[in-house]
Structure formats: structure tokens, C-alpha cells
Amino acid sequence: MQKSDELSNVNETAARARGRPRAFDREAALAQATRLFWIKGFEATSIADLTEAMGIGSPSLYAAFGSKEALYAEALRHYRDNNEALVWAGFFSAGTAREAVMSLLMDSAAALTGCVADIPRGCMVTLSSVGSEGHAELGELVRTARAITLDRLKARLNQAISEGEIPASTDVHALARFVQTVQNGMSILARDEATRSELEAVAELAMLGWDTRTGDAEHKQG
Known about the structure:
elongated, mainly alpha, 11 helices, 75% helix
């Protein structure tokens, strides 16, 4: 009788296990969604694409993330948290503004072409067209994310002026925009299969423009 009861308990436990929805790793699923949005963009990525990549059903997707729009917003956060250091770590640790900008562009050449990690080519934020696809709130999130680059560059340039590294007459906004524009262009070219060495050559030429604007005679002579 005891064995029969034990067998019955085992069967009941197995039945309950079969009836429970399959648990999933939320961050791992988010990582897959981020990669898909990164490659295809918001509008071209369907719910079916997402559920297949994330390994969950659409009810689980909506239960966990609320909507496709909310999932994209979380994907932007995941992208920033997991990839930002690839291009910004050297910038923040550099001793001079010139070294910071050079690191940003060189590290971008490596990261944007997928040479330092198994990631898609180009920058998810730079390449996003979600704002022009009729999604105003998501577009504002992307524009805010893009603006961070300009803000960081301007802060570093202002620091360089205060430390006497570059002339006080330097047009900080224009120079920061120049660097930002170069990096954004590198992202587009990376998506079009430009190589790391090609983008590094762009970075080196951009620094000649930096030297011209900042009057860095030492590097111009070198």
C-alpha cells in the first residue's frame, strides 16, 4: 500500500510539473530581443520574430515585458548596460582630451565591426530609425541616447580648456559635433561591411582635423 501511495505522489508531481508554464531567463531573453532589434530595427521585427528568438510564446512576452514598445525600451537599456564600455572605457580613462577622442574612435572602429565581441555590426542607437517610423516616445528615447555622446564630448573638451590642453577659443560645440559625426558615420559604414582597418584609417584622419582645430603642433609634426 505504501508503494502504491508513493507511486501516486510521483505521478501527481509529474503532472503538476507538466502543467506549469516553462520558466525562462528574462535577461537572456532580453539579450536575444536586443540582438534582433539591433539587426533588423523596430518596425521590421515582428512579434513572431521575437518569440522565436527569445524562445517564449507571445503570452509570456506580453506578461514579462508588456508590449513590443516596452520591450524595445528595455532593449535599449540592455544595449547600453552591456556594450557601452566597449567604446567608452578608454575615453573615460584617458589622460588628455586628445587621447580620449582617439580612444573613442579607435575603440569604435573595433567594436562597431564586431572585432571585440560577438555582436552585430554598427551601433543600435545610431542606426535606429524608430522615431521616423511613427513611434514618437521611442524616438525620443533614442534621441536622448544619441545626445549623451555630444554631452560627454563637450564636457571633456571644456575640461581640456580649463586645463590648458586646448585653446580657450576652441568652438567646443562644433568640435564635439565633428567627433560625434565621424563616429556615427563609422557606425553606418560598419553596417555596410567596412573593415576595422578602414575605420581606423578614418579615425586617424579625423585626428588630423582635431590637431588643426586645437593647434596641437606636436601631433601635427609627428
